[in-house]
Amino acid sequence: MPLYEYHCGGCDANVELLIRNSAEQPECPHCGGKKLARLLSVVSGHVAGGPSSAQAMPEAGCGKPWCGTGACGRMPN
Predict the structure, then answer these.
(1) 14-45 pLDDT, tens per residue?
(2) Listing from the earlier edge strand, what are the strands of the sheet with 36-38?
(3) Sign of CA dihedral 34, 59, 71, 49
(4) From CA 23, how far away is CA 42, in angstroms rounded?
(5) Rounded CA Rg of the chain
(6) Residue-range domain boundaries for the chain
(7) Among the listed residues 55, 56, 77, the one whose alpha carbon sits nearest the alpha carbon of residue 66
(8) DSSP-assigned letters across all residues of 31-42
(9) Contact by Cβ (8 Å): 26, 6
């Protein structure tokens, strides 16, 4: 069962919800609102020889063109 991220238009909260089937109408756990917009989820994966998934990437990224590839620590400044 996939986890989806939603933004609630009623209370301005971002929430992760477990959706069992596509016919299920998600509801905000904070306010009970049904005006939820599904957000794009960031896909993560492990690359052989790359940093482990336990290492945290900077939330906003480092700003380098290769940021987000897992290579920030190995690329030139």
Answers:
(1) 999 988 887 888 899 999 999 999 998 766 66
(2) 14-18, 3-8, 36-38
(3) negative
(4) 23
(5) 17
(6) 3-38
(7) 77
(8) T----EEEPPPP
(9) yes
| Size of the chain in residues | 77
DSSP state at residue 58? P
Alpha carbon distance 60, 29 (integer Å) = 27
Cα 67 from chain centroid?
16
Q: In the structure encoding, which two tokens stand for residue 60, read together?
A: 């906003």
b/e burial code for range 39-68 (CB count within 10 A of at least 16 → b): eeeeeeeeeeeeeeeeeeeeeeeeeeeeee
The answer to whether residues 7 and 34 touch, using CB atoms and an 8 Å cutoff, is: no
pTM above 0.90, yes or no: no
Number of H helices, E strands in the chain: 0, 3
